[in-house]
Automatic annotation (TrEMBL), chain A:
Pfam families per record: Methyltransf_25 (PF13649)
Domain Methyltransferase: 52-119
PROSITE patterns, alphabetized: N6_MTASE (PS00092)
Gene3D superfamilies: Vaccinia Virus protein VP39
CDD domains xref list: AdoMet_MTases (cd02440)
Provenance organism: Halarchaeum acidiphilum MH1-52-1
Protein name per its UniProtKB record: Protein-N(5)-glutamine methyltransferase prmC, methylates polypeptide chain release factors RF1 and RF2
InterPro entries: DNA_methylase_N6_adenine_CS (IPR002052), Euk-Arch_PrmC-MTase (IPR052190), Methyltransf_25 (IPR041698), PrmC-related (IPR004557), SAM-dependent_MTases_sf (IPR029063)
A molecular function (GO) term: nucleic acid binding
Classification of source organism: Archaea, Methanobacteriati, Methanobacteriota, Stenosarchaea group, Halobacteria
GO CC term (a single one): eRF1 methyltransferase complex
UniProtKB/TrEMBL annotation, chain B:
PANTHER family associated with the record: PROTEIN PREY, MITOCHONDRIAL, ZGC:162634
SUPFAM superfamilies xrefs: Trm112p-like (SSF158997)
NCBIfam families found in the cross-reference section: Trm112_arch (NF038101)
Organism (species): Halarchaeum acidiphilum MH1-52-1
Pfam families, per database record: Trm112p (PF03966)
This protein's name: Protein YcaR in KDO2-Lipid A biosynthesis cluster
Domain of life: Archaea
Length: 205, 64
């Protein structure tokens, strides 16, 4: 199965100023339709007074866009040191982190996550940072599940998560898993592509 | 990193407070330094303005 949105190296932001910052093309996931969908929803939802985390910020596109549109403080975190540097170059307050591990309890009003969600394909295994950015283990849900295991800890009492999911990942399975972790879910936006439908889920407790 | 990030971050291993040791600072931001867990003593480097709060076994520059 081909994943149109997540084809590595795909140029989807031509004309955008972020495109000019490309240069480490195999090291950092470039913003694509998934990034744009999450950024659009987040810009509508986030308030200026919110403290926001953009987990797996990659190029920093979502964090930078939300900061520009809402004036909220948005931290960008990534496992990938190249992504952290690129996000910082884009003006994002970057922290190298594994998901939300180094953040205090109740720290954030909003946590954004566009996760690695493709099921791993052994034939396509690359063993590089791009694979880390794209694949979520055999099911496509391993990173999302690890995130859901811990994100409740760092959310303020009224805090919520905006999570991008794909039909390639299994939306019902993600919703069920989130439910087991105490979250109720509502879909805020959907966008269909030839091989997948992307959704942004809002998770609240 | 901004100094007030200290109110948001904690040790990724045991979630205790971190102590900040600044080596260099520019435009009100910490460019290099060290974060040290007040409880377990693990240290986390700040390089080029970016705190590296990965556990020691995850810090390699290459994946896996």
């Amino acid at each position: 199965m081909e994943a149109r949105v997540r084809t590595p190296g795909r140029m989807s932001m031509s004309g955008d100023d972020l495109a000019g910052r490309r240069g480490v093309e195999t090291d950092v996931y470039d913003p694509a339709e998934d990034s744009r969908l999450l950024a659009d929803v987040a810009c509508e939802a986030v308030s200026e007074s919110d403290l926001v985390a953009d987990v797996g910020t990659g190029s920093g596109y979502v964090a930078a866009t939300v900061t520009a549109e809402t004036s909220a403080r948005v931290l960008g975190t990534d496992l990938n040191p190249h992504a952290c540097r690129r996000a910082r170059d884009a003006g994002v307050e970057a922290v190298r982190a594994n998901l939300v591990a180094p953040f205090r309890a109740d720290a954030f009003d909003v946590v954004l996550f566009n996760p690695p969600y493709l099921p791993a394909d052994a034939a396509a295994a690359r063993d590089d940072w791009m694979e880390v950015a794209l694949t979520g283990g055999e099911t496509g849900r391993e990173v999302v599940e690890a995130f859901l295991d811990d994100v409740g800890r760092v959310l303020s009492p009224d805090g919520y998560v905006l999570l991008l999911v794909s039909t390639l990942t299994g939306v019902d399975e993600v919703v069920d898993y989130a439910g087991e972790r105490g979250f109720s879910t509502v879909a805020l936006a959907d966008e269909s592509f030839p091989f997948e439908t992307l959704s942004v889920l809002k998770l609240v407790r | 990193m901004k100094r007030d990030l200290m109110d948001i971050v904690c040790c990724p291993l045991d979630k205790h407070d971190l102590d900040l040791d600044v080596e260099s600072e520019e435009d009100g931001e910490v460019v290099s330094g060290t974060l040290t867990c007040a409880d377990c003593g693990e240290t986390y480097p700040i390089e080029d303005g970016i705190p590296n709060l990965l556990p020691p076994d995850m810090r390699e520059e290459t994946p896996a």
